[in-house]
Amino acid sequence: MIRTRGLAYRYGAGPQLQFADVDLPQGGTLLLQGRSGAGKSTWLALVAGLRAATGGDLFVAGIQLGTQRGAELDAWRARCIGFLPQKLHLSSALTVADNLALAYFAAGRPRDDAAIAQALAQVGVAELAGRKPHQLSGGQAQRVALARAVLLQPELLLADEPTASLDDEAAADALALLQTSAATCGASLVIATHDQRVVQALAGVPRLQRLDLNANPAQAPGGSDLNQMGTQRPADKR
Q1: Whole-model pTM?
Q2: Is Calcium found in the keyword set (predicted)?
Q3: What pLDDT, on the 0 to 100 scale, is given for residue 224?
Q4: Within-domain flag for 104
C-alpha cells in the first residue's frame, strides 16, 4: 500500500527533510507523530501526490509517485486517496450533500445520491444532507468531512490532527469513527498527530506501525496543500 525508500523533501534552499522507510500493507494503520514543523503535513502531501519528493522512492496504492503528472495524477488521487483535513473546508455555499458530490467531480464520475446518503448514514448524520455548513456543530461538520473522505471507497485514508481542539469524549468518538470508517471500506489508515490521547488509544491496534518525525533536524514551514484536497468546485478548476 505505502512503500518508501530514502524519502526526502527540501523546501527551497533550506535543509532537507529526511523520512524513515515505511512498509504499510493494505488495511494497516500508521501513526505519524511529530511536533509542529517536524514534517507531518509534508509527508502526507508527498503520499497524496500533492508534492513531488526531492529524493528517494515512493509507492502508494499500486503506483510509483513521480511518474504521473496533471490530470492523470489528479484522477488517481481522487480515486485512491481519502483525506480528513484539520481545516475541514466545507463550501459554505453548498449543502452537505452537494459538498460530498464534489468528490465525484474531482474523480470525473457521475454523482451518486444513493451513495452520498449511505456515506452520511454510516457516520450518523444522514439527516443533515440538506443543511449548509454554518448550520452544523463542530462535531457534525467533522463527520460530514469524514463521509466525504470515504465516499469513493478509497484505498488510503489520511487524517491530519483529527482530534485537534476536541475534548476527551469527542476525541475518543472521532478516533473510533475514523477507524471504523477505514475498516468499512478496507482502507489503510494514516493518522498524523501530536496528541498523546491518540497515541494511547492506538496502542492496542494490532500491527500498528509508527513513524516518529521528532528526530528530524530540519524544520518544515507552516501551511499545507492538504487542506484544499478534493474541495474544489467546478468553477475553481483552472
Answers
A1: 0.90
A2: no
A3: 52
A4: no
